[in-house]
Design goal:
Layout lengths: L1 E5 L3 H12 L3 E6 L10 E5 H10 L2 H6 L6 E5 L5 E6 L1 H6 L4 E5 H10 L5 E5 L3 E6 L4 E5 L5 E3 L1 E4 L6 H7 L6 E14 L8 E7 L2 E7 L4 E9 L11 H12 L6 H8 L6 E8 L5 E2 L2 E3 L2 H4 L8 H19 L3 H30 L4 H13 L5 H6 L15
Bound molecules: flavin-adenine dinucleotide.
Length: 394
């Protein structure tokens, strides 16, 4: 089949890899001018780690991994009031866990694609017209093409989803928080292997040391902290973050003044994508575009890879019967993704507690993670995937 995939992120590159492996002709379309670099740090574990292993890309990903050794929670004076060594999480995940930048996963998989995959950068699918036997796709720049299947792997704010399934507002399930993330060059103080976290009611801010003397600042806050309109450009975002975090103590004043020097700030609502169907005719969705579990789930990257693996495997097994492949793709994964989304929704209260008591209780619970048994009790279910990945013959 000729397959066009919009988005060369984690889901898009993984799907391209598997479809190519099964002999299909794949076109990847990425709106960024080149593969993205940098970006926030995430943990890859569970079935996503298993899929990376099946693809043989683990050694590549391991080369780019980070070694954050401790999550340290501090109060407004900077005194330690919670946290635990990350070895606790690695142990729970049976040492199958990687801390890695989001862009390094996509780049690692893209680097493993062979020549059968064409990538167009700086463009986007912007029109889809399908009938029973084919799909015509229009691009912002490239000429129209005919393909057999179109996949939206273009993330939380998917354009393919909007084109083929309808307005985003029908599927966006907001969890009541916003997230901001940005990188600071040369920020001090810095401990190379420690992620620092500070919380107050309704607000969470952390800084994480990255390579090349960059520090990632990652902030989550309840929607009620945001006064007025949701900011739409960098200067409005900076103003909003200053208003929300200026009185938080710790290093917040220093972080906010360093923020003045940077241009790029990721800022969005913390949302899930909840849909009845992930497929429609000859169009399918994968990754965040289909079933974003939100950053609170801490597993979106791995789930995106698992979805890509199953979608490609079912297409392969169905030998051209797309309707059958799509049904099995959804049957195998939708109930599992729904459970993941519900679990993440329940975690919002622990991630960004609304009260001082809630913050203190969360900090106390993280201290318990240093003791025997508590890691399993507190995080064991969170770090397990109650689904079996099918095996597909090649
Ligand atoms: C701050 C933060 C922290 C997170 N932490 C974790 C974590 O610890 N663990 C974890 O597993 N997950 C985490 N996640 C979630 C994880 O990043 C996502 O679930 C994962 O990246 C989804 O992969 P994806 O390929 O579906 O989408 P994305 O990674 O968003 O990739 C989409 C790609 O599509 C491209 N694109 C977008 N629109 C278009 C268009 N119109 N045309 C062409 N291309 C387009 C984008 O440029 C991008 O390359 C976090 C998310 C955030 C925001």
């Amino acid at each position: 089949m000729r397959v066009a995939i919009n988005g060369a992120g984690i889901a898009g590159t993984a799907l391209a890899w598997w479809l190519r492996r099964y002999g299909h002709e794949v076109l990847l379309v990425e709106q960024a001018p080149a593969l993205r670099s940098g970006g926030y740090l995430l943990d890859l574990w569970g079935i996503g780690y298993d899929v990376a292993e099946k693809m043989g890309v683990l050694p590549r990903l391991q080369e780019s991994q980070y070694h954050v050794e401790e999550l340290r929670i501090v109060d407004r004076q900077g005194r330690v009031c919670g946290g635990y060594p990350t070895s606790v999480l690695s142990r729970l995940a049976k040492d199958r866990l990687l801390a890695i930048a989001r862009s390094d996963i996509a780049a690692g998989i893209h680097g493993a694609l062979d020549r059968g995959v064409e990538t167009i950068f700086g463009d986007s699918i912007c029109a889809i017209e399908q009938d029973e036997s084919r799909v015509m796709i229009g691009f912002e720049h490239a000429p129209t093409r005919e393909v057999d299947l179109v996949v939206g792997a273009d993330g939380l704010r998917s354009r393919v989803r909007a084109l083929a399934f309808g307005a985003e507002s029908k599927f966006d399930y907001a969890l009541g928080c916003h997230v901001a993330a940005f990188e600071l060059p040369g920020y001090r103080p810095r401990e190379d292997s420690v992620a620092m976290i500070h919380g107050a009611p309704g607000r969470y801010i952390s800084n994480i040391p990255l390579r090349e003397d960059r520090t990632l600042v990652f902030a989550v806050f309840r929607d009620k902290c945001l006064i007025g309109e949701v900011p739409s450009n960098a200067s409005e975002r900076k103003a909003a973050l200053r208003a929300i975090f200026a009185d938080m103590g710790w290093e917040c004043p220093r972080i906010l003044s360093a923020m003045a020097e940077i241009d790029e700030i990721y800022f969005d609502s913390v949302s899930q994508i909840r849909m009845e169907r992930w497929t429609h005719g000859r169009v399918a969705l994968v990754g965040d575009a289909a079933a974003c579990p939100s950053l609170i789930a801490g597993e979106g990257a791995g789930l995106a890879m698992a979805e890509a693996y199953v979608l490609a495997g079912e297409i392969h097994t169905s030998r051209g019967n797309l309707a059958a492949a799509f049904s099995r793709y959804e049957e195998r994964l939708k109930p599992f993704l729904t459970r993941k989304q519900k679990a993440a929704e329940k975690m919002v209260g622990a991630f960004v507690p609304n009260s001082a008591f809630g913050v203190a209780a969360r900090n106390f619970a993280t201290r318990l993670m240093r003791l025997p048994i508590f890691p399993e009790l507190l995080m064991g279910r969170y770090l397990s995937d109650d689904v079996e990945l099918p095996e597909y013959a090649t």
